[in-house]
Write a structure and sequence with these properties.
This protein is of the alpha+beta class. The protein has a single domain, classed as Glutaredoxin (3-Layer(aba) Sandwich), CATH 3.40.30. It has three helices and four strands.
Length: 83
């Protein structure tokens, strides 16, 4: 199991942004697709608004695609932003 876990929905364009960043950076991550019409209780415990994407890193959830992208840029190799 990877240290990075991405909670996603197959049709969410915001999740795709995180997947692209993780892939381009070569980061190992586990992806779990959530049925947003039938959200599991464990998901609602980590995402009180019940939205995706959520990235779990070192046990801490990070919500929304922009903060996830910023976190990945700061913590993962292979920067995607110019210096």
């Amino acid at each position: 199991m990877s240290n990075l876990q991405l909670m996603s929905h197959a049709l969410c364009p915001y999740v795709q942004r995180a997947v692209i960043s993780l892939t381009e950076k070569g980061a190992l991550f586990d992806r779990t697709d959530i049925d947003l019409a039938n959200k599991p209780d464990w998901f609602l415990q980590i995402s009180p608004l019940g939205k995706t994407p959520v990235l779990i890193s070192v046990g801490q959830p990070i919500f929304e695609s922009v903060p996830i992208l910023e976190y990945l840029e700061e913590t993962q190799p292979h920067p995607l932003h110019p210096a």
